[in-house]
Amino acid sequence: YMLNLKTLSHYFIVILFPLSLGYIPISLAQNNSDWVISHTYDNLCGGYYQQPLYPYPGITKEAEANLPFELSADSAQIYAEGLSRLEGNVNITQGNKRFQADNMLLLRKNEAIQKIEAHSNLILTQPDVRVEANSGFWDPQNNVFNLESIDYRYYPRQARGRAKKVMLSPSKIILYNGTYTPCAPCTNTWELSAQKLTLSKD
Length: 202
What we know:
Layout: E1 2-3, E2 12-16, E3 35-37, E4 47-49, H1 61-65, E5 69-73, E6 75-77, E7 82-94, E8 97-109, E9 112-126, E10 129-139, E11 144-154, E12 159-168, E13 172-180, E14 192-200
Parallel strand pairs: 2-5
Antiparallel strand pairs: 1-2, 3-4, 5-7, 6-7, 7-8, 8-9, 9-10, 10-11, 11-12, 12-13, 13-14
């Protein structure tokens, strides 16, 4: 069923659905369905990572920020102010951004979402990036994600890797104690490791 929270804020809608309709996450370490085999001259590793299609192609960051949040979970306790709790197959989307986890806490202040904290089987997908993590949080006001114990894909550079922590902002991605390689899945012909890696989105 659907619970429309426009009376609390015009910024988000909550949709609750049963487990049978939920998203079942598959680890990047196990799932290489985004790898496309190709032997053209510009694919030295024998292929490339292809990112998925998104519902709002070409949307600007400003326009996306004005779109409503959509929430779904097996169960939820939603409040206009303070902490709200969502449990079981939790999905929060805004435009092309999708934040998924087993459990989330949502902090609201002055009718605005200030912070979304996620735990267990966390998956972030947005244009150019896919990240899986153990835990982390999303700051919607600044459009910043901080995630821990991660596996990632960075599609513009056909790269993948791991990191202890990652910070994703609109302009850059910073990996802490991370790795970076453009090689095919399960094949590290070469790999860069560093205490801090910065990937610029410009």
